[in-house]
Each structure stands twice: as structure tokens, then as C-alpha cells.
């Protein structure tokens, strides 16, 4: 299985219902650990822009632990670039819902990036480096390292 799609009944490489009902389709994803997100990234692998003049994603809803779910509204997407939304959220989010009227939308993956200093985000190397078995503290807080 490689994608979620409302049109999944016609394609064995995706999951979902055979078609969207008149009120649209919804995909709900829940994450293992709730977190306060800094950004949301969604990879869409296919949609049919000529099917409707509307954005392919009718609404994105962040599911919060408090129940005060947050609507991000409609979103235009592209197949050659992930949709990345910078978020200004102050509470923990445990999942996300995508709403669409687009029969051919295909979503491949979704990523929440946490705000800095999330206690769940720790890197532990096993075995440790011999020159620094307890790790290194970087003295330059403005630098950012991405692997």
C-alpha cells in the first residue's frame, strides 16, 4: 500500500473507499505521541485539478487533546512539492483530518515537526562516541544541523 485515495476501490496500490459520498471524504491520521507542532508537511502524489475548481484539500483539521480542534482551511496542493504549513499552535495535537471532494486525491505521507525542546526528541547513540560518551553541547544556539 503506497497512498490513501478516495478512489482506492479502482487501484490496488492505495487504501480508502471506492468513491467520495456527496459530502466528501475524510482521512484521519493519529500519531503515536501528541506534540505541540511547529509545522505540518503533506506529500500528495496525485490529484485531478480539472475535476473541480476548488482546492484539492477542502480542509485540514488538527485534533487537539483539549478538544479545541483547529481548522487550517482549504489548501491547494502540488504533486511535485510537498505542502508545508508553518503552525502557530500552543496545545498538543494528537492527529490530523483531511477533507476532500476530490475523487482522485492521493496522499502519500504526513509529517508533524515539533516545536523546539520537545522532551520526546532525544538522540542517543549506541555505542557512544569514544571521545564524548555523554554527548556534546553546542555552544552556538543559532546554528541548526539537519541530517
Unreliable runs, pLDDT <50, ≥5 residues? Answer: none
Q: State the major sheet.
A: 4 strands, antiparallel
In what order do the strands lie side by side in the largest sheet? 3-8-5-6
Q: Report how far the terminal alpha carbons are from each other.
A: 27 Å
SS strand fraction: 35-45%
Give a written overview of the molecule.
With about 150 residues, the protein is mainly β. Helix content is about 0%, strand content about 35%. The chain contains no helices and nine strands. The strands form three sheets. It has a four-stranded antiparallel beta sheet with strand order 3-8-5-6, with no helix packed on it. A hairpin with a 5-residue loop joins β5 (about 60-65) and β6. The mean pLDDT is about 80.
Write the layout of secondary structure elements.
Elements: E1 3-4, E2 14-15, E3 25-35, E4 37-46, E5 59-64, E6 70-71, E7 83-86, E8 93-100, E9 106-114
Parallel strand pairs: 1-2
Antiparallel strand pairs: 3-8, 4-7, 4-9, 5-6, 5-8
Protein name: Pappalysin-1 SD scarf domain-containing protein
Organism: Cirrhinus mrigala (Mrigala)
Domain Pappalysin-1 SD scarf: 1-122
Quick structural summary:
With 147 residues, this protein is mainly beta. It contains no helices and 9 strands.
Amino acid at each position: 500500500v503506497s497512498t490513501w485515495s478516495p478512489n482506492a476501490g479502482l487501484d490496488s496500490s492505495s487504501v480508502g473507499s471506492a468513491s467520495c459520498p456527496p459530502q466528501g471524504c475524510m482521512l484521519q491520521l493519529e500519531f503515536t505521541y501528541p506534540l505541540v507542532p511547529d509545522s505540518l508537511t503533506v506529500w500528495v502524489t496525485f490529484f485531478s485539478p480539472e475535476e473541480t475548481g476548488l482546492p484539492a484539500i477542502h480542509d485540514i483539521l488538527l485534533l487537539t487533546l483539549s478538544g479545541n480542534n483547529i481548522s487550517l482551511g482549504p489548501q491547494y496542493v502540488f504533486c511535485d512539492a510537498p505542502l508545508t504549513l508553518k503552525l502557530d499552535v500552543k496545545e498538543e495535537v494528537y492527529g490530523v483530518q483531511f477533507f476532500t471532494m476530490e475523487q482522485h486525491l492521493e496522499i502519500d505521507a504526513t509529517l508533524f515537526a515539533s516545536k523546539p525542546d520537545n522532551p520526546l526528541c532525544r538522540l542517543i547513540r549506541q555505542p557512544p562516541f569514544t571521545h564524548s560518551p555523554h554527548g556534546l553541547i553546542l555552544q552556538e544556539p543559532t546554528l541548526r544541523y539537519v541530517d
